[in-house]
Design goal:
Strand content: under 5%
Distance between the termini: 211 Å
Order of helices and strands: HHHHHHH
Structural class: mainly alpha
Number of helices: 7
Number of strands: 0
Length: 239
């Protein structure tokens, strides 16, 4: 019985020793694993540190390059802004000049048309004056109407006057008209007749030059007031 117990104790002791060895091995393995992990972790950290340091060492150059690019870009942008503003100014100036040119064109066109019309009218007036100068003056027209009036005054009657008063009557009328201080109704009427004659003569010649149609009625309008006066003042004119 004692022997058996001793054996049992020895077996138990051996088993404990074996268990202790295994545990030790496991512990050693864990230590090694931890050591390897720490070593790997240290290596990773060292690599991170090294990479980070390399990046930080390259930062100044990279930053300088970015600043250089930004500075160059800003300079270029400023130049573009200046150039842009200059172009805008040119466009504004161009538009202003174009508007001024268009306004000046309108003015020149108006001036050209006005000048042409003025020249045309001046030429027309010169021709009108020349044509009027070719027509009988008032004294001649008056004498002609007086002569016609005298001829028709008692035409066809047995007591028709043989005395031609044309020159006397004409001279009397013209002399009366020349009296500057004579403002009697009859004298004023004869002055009006002269003004109407000249006005109608001008109108007739103007129509002729402009190619307008003239009638005998138009032509005889210039004599209307002369004949009206001859009829109105007949008794005072013919003695």
């Amino acid at each position: 019985m004692n022997i058996t117990k001793v054996r049992d104790n020895s077996w138990g002791t051996g088993s404990r020793e074996n268990d202790s060895g295994v545990n030790k091995d496991l512990a050693d393995a864990r230590v090694k694993v931890k050591a390897l992990a720490r070593e790997k972790s240290f290596k990773t950290l060292q690599e991170t540190i090294a990479e980070t340091q390399v990046w930080l060492d390259s930062y100044p150059e990279k930053s300088l390059n970015y600043r250089r690019i930004r500075k160059e870009g800003k300079v270029l942008l400023d130049e573009l802004k200046i150039s842009w503003e200059a172009e805008i100014c040119k466009l504004d100036k161009n538009e202003e000049d174009a508007n001024f040119l268009n306004q000046e064109k309108l003015i020149k066109e108006g001036l050209l048309m006005q000048t042409k019309d003025t020249l045309k009218e001046a030429v027309h007036q010169d021709k009108l004056i020349a044509l009027i100068s070719e027509q009988p003056i008032f004294a001649e027209a008056l004498r002609g109407q007086v002569k016609a009036f005298v001829a028709n005054r008692f035409s066809g009657l047995s007591f028709e006057s043989d005395h031609d008063q044309t020159d006397d009557v004409t001279k009397g009328i013209l002399t009366r008209m020349e009296q500057g201080r004579d403002f009697s109704p009859e004298t004023v009427a004869w002055r009006g007749a002269k003004a109407m004659y000249l006005e109608q003569l001008k109108e007739i010649c103007d129509k002729k030059l402009r190619g307008q149609t003239l009638t005998s009625q138009d032509a005889h309008k210039r004599f209307k007031q002369i004949n009206d006066n001859l009829n109105r003042y007949e008794t005072s004119l013919f003695k």
